[in-house]
Batch of 2 targets.
Target 1
Amino acid sequence: MFAYILRRLWQMLPTMAGVVVLVFVLFNWVGGDPSYLLAGKMADARAIANIRAQLGLDAPWYVQLGIFVKQIVTFDFGNAWATGEPVSHIIASRLGPSLTVLVPLTVLETTIGIALALAVAFVRGSLTDRVVMVACTVGMSISILVYIIVFQYGLAYKLGLFPVQGWGEHFTENLLRYATLPILIGLTVSLAPTLRLFRSFVLDEVGQDYVRTARAKGLPERRIVWVHVLRNAAIPIITYVMANLPALLIGAFLLERFFGIPGIGREVILAVERSDFPVIKAITVYVAAATMVFNLLADLMYQAVDPRVQLK
Amino acid sequence: MTVQELSLPATPVGLWGLAWRRLRADRVAMVALAVVGLFLLSVVLAATGLVAADWEDEVAVNYAPPSFVGPDPALAALALPPRPAPPNAFDPLAGDIAELRAQLARRGHAAHAAKRTTLPFGADKWGHDIVRKTIKGGQTSIVVGLVAAFVAVALGTLFGALSGFYGGLVDDLFNWFYNVFTAIPSILMILTVAAVLQTKGVLTIVLILGLTGWTGPYRLIRAEYIKHKAREYVMAADAIGASGWRKMFVHIFPNVSHVALVQMSILVVGFIKAEVILSFLGFGVPVGVVSWGSMLNEAQNELILGKWWQLTAAASAMAILVTAFSLFADALRDALDPKLK
């Protein structure tokens, strides 16, 4: 087990190196010279040269790459260009609000998704199943923007059930007051694709021999669904949920922006708007690393759930 | 009668013919196809200028409500042509302005045509007709979706073909590339590229989406090429001395093109949604170009004023197209790969 984890971490190195090079190439060659941006509108040649020297842009490319790698390894990306706040502090302080929304959202989405998928898969082909699937397709085709705009306007602004936007100091206040509507919207948007996917996972299982055997020995349908099928369908579900967690951190950016939640996603949007390269670079590299680690975690959990799987 | 005529049916039916037959039998798919066809027709008409070319004309009063709601009495005053300013003997520009007015009148511009108080589906902040604006916005969004999906599938197919066909070092290289691109969540990748490129424009969005979206098609096409390269027809092509490129794209590609087509139809849906979000955030289409995303951006503020029509128009046009396109993509996949289901 330990050897497996070590080898997987070792295999991540080339991919991580690729991510670093990709980000480096994007920001250093594809993008324009940031010193013009930083120098402002009334820039003279001296100021620009000064900024270039500060950023290390006048050094050869391998020195710049070295600086970038050092920044990644030491978690020190310097200060954000727009606000002067240390990048490491930005990431650390924005993680909490993001997780306050994302953890309840993921838990609710997965539980409700599994329950509905099992229910729908067992009446597959029936009218209910078809109506639910068509509803999912229609629900998925409406832009997330429309959900957010309409829900925020209707439930928060018109009816006053929730605060329109905002964020407080205390965790419970945030969770129960400010995060409720974003979670509700996130759930509405994500439930349809989740349900479709989980349904296909369950459908792969209900045709298996062990289900027939369980029926033949007279088990009640409830036990077959909730014990036999669920344990087998759980394997792809866990892989999917785990592997998607880091992407979700960014994916909630629209919710965070509309509701003024100071999370990672909103920070990315702000950084893109302000061309705040250190923040974008740091978030991209760390989210990529997190994606790889979570993929490994998914494989480890995979084995925990399914003893047949041998990690090699 | 020759032997050949006896043994073969009158017209042999290929993969595409069979798929078309299956698709024809699927009523939902045909309705979806018709809806998608209508949208594509509107794109062509809008692109050639036959329809909605004049969407920027301020034909109605600001925020004119839809006809079925009836005119808004608060806006009635705006519909009247403005009263001419009383003559001012001290106005130094009076002569110049009179000259300009005369020029405009000579070119046939009616000075301040009476503005309408209602339109079939209302007007926006500047009095643009929402129906025309939605058609024009649809042109941008759909063209971006189609072209970006084509770029992504072309890249994915090229990489997948090279990777699957040659294997070995080439395969390792592209797999590494694939791992790097999938390690970064696609939305973050899109935003990062948007931050770097700095230039707004339709071409930029197409490039962003196309260059980041090739991973899905790549994986599937690569698997198909691995499967096909060992088949007998490829060995036969090898025996007659066909080159690698010829085997890849003349012999094998027609047999895996259905995968590319299905992938493309799935990507179009995703990219239309992505374009709307990008344009909404202001990283997409430039100022002056209308898309469903920029319409939603305006509509967000209008909703608070109670002007719901622009939001409804853009949102429902997009929802109808995306629903039809997804249903068609599903049916297309089922028709081209009957083993699945």
Target 2
Amino acid sequence: MRRTVGALLRKELLVELRTLESVPGMSLFAVTTFVVFHFALHRNSVDGDLAAGILWVTLLFAAILGINRLFVADADQGGFDAFLLAPVERSALLFAKAITLLAYLVVLELIAVPAFGLLLLGPSLGHALPGLIGVLALGDLGVAAIGTLVAALTVRTRARDLLGPLLALPLLVPVVIGGARASSPLLALGHTGAPAARWLLTLGLYDLVFGLIAYALFDFLLED
Amino acid sequence: MYGRGLRALSISTVAVMALALALVFFWAPLEAEQGFLQKIFYVHVPLAIVSLCGFVAGGLLAIQHLRTRDPRWDMRSYVAIHMSLIFGVATLITGSIWAKGSWGHWWVWDEPTLVSFLIVFLLYATYQPLRFAIEDPERQSRYASVFAITAGAFVPLNFIAVRASTAYVHPRVLGATSNLPWQMSLTFLVSLTAMTLLFVTMCKYELTAKHTRAQLRALRRLADRRSGTASPAPRSGRSAAPSVHATAMTAPPGQGPKAR
């Protein structure tokens, strides 16, 4: 199992490194969205609730770009068939894809969060960073689990570009609630305190439940 | 076989519904603050509860479908979710009316139950487009079941997240029924029963109708073949609804029609 996941993961990352299809697009999208927010809100700097909301909405939409592309090569170029021919466990593909998506999100945040600090955030990023990393990591786990499931569910449908975001957005609302509320005190002027435990708990519960659900249901998406 | 008990069920639904409405309008006391407006509580809240339970039931039926691969479970799951969507629209409309009446706005964001209901509704609104976008019927039902299970688990989780995020203003019903005068709780319970019966009856009607139509189509094809006329080409239009296949008629009882 571990070897299979490793091999698949190596393949995914190699393909991404050679084609550069997802991560640069996601990062560029995030930075452009910050610029759009600057003009749309007519604000030079934001803090608190507003900052947390902008950060999470931008990251969510950028993540959806990656989710939409996650299985496209496998569906269009016979990757699914090749994988099904191999005598390996099917959940290996879920783990490999989820880790791939997680890696995309981490790279996206490595670019988007400093850009956010530079372009829009009023208070300094340095104080918020340790807490923010924890909150983002919890959120990313949930996005990776549900994103992989939704991507596999919609990739072989007509109108998959439309259905993916339509399904993913409502499913990810709890992540936005938990993530934005948890990071809002971190991004407030004067850095007022740590995130409330219940938001971290909400995120953790979400990660756990949907991680298990994705694991339980993924096999059924790969039968033909 | 689908129509069995339908008449008794319909009659009891109408009877309990009439009893519930009579209790609501002629017997339950007027609420001190909201007056007559509060009567919508006996419609709105049962609608919401029944529709949420219907969504979750759709998920449970979908689990059964994935375990047994019997398309009849998929049909039941589809019907439950379809009906819950209709009840969901009614919930949102009655909720809006109530909000306008008691708070002065058609939509209130700091009311967790209404907001989380909207999110759940938006998620389930993609159920039929998802089905419609998959052409192969077997894969359509399998993917729809995966969706139904995921969304069914999402319902309670979403309520936890949204409720935690908002100040609490909604008149909580479950768990606080003891605060209501007993006439109100009794009326509410009768309304809830009536709404549940309505849901079950409507589901049964839809199942029966779908099954009857499939049987009729099969019989017609059979008659055409007997009389020697060329049978019309099978319907090529795709549908979001799971198809009941004509083989259902000839399959021995207890063994479900196979989708392929």
